[in-house]
Design brief:
By secondary structure, this protein is mainly alpha-helical. The protein is built from 2 helices and no strands.
């Protein structure tokens, strides 16, 4: 098991960096969503922003981060 990828420190670091990057995308998407929803509640966000937000959240939920 010593040679397995899961035990390789460099691969673990790469994996963790990728996970952190995905979390950063998720946090950014949530912040954008809150900002757009706040704008919608105040009547300042156009419908196109809400549709783009819905698409972005759908891509994030499906794990399709590359398209964001």
């Amino acid at each position: 098991m010593k040679d397995s990828p899961i035990n390789d420190g460099a691969l673990q670091v790469d994996f963790l960096q990728n996970e952190i990057a995905l979390l950063n995308v998720a946090v950014t998407a949530i912040a954008c969503r809150l900002s757009v929803l706040e704008g919608a509640l105040e009547g300042k966000a156009p419908i196109s922003d809400l549709w783009a937000l819905r698409t972005m959240v759908g891509q994030l939920a499906s794990g399709d981060v590359a398209k964001l």
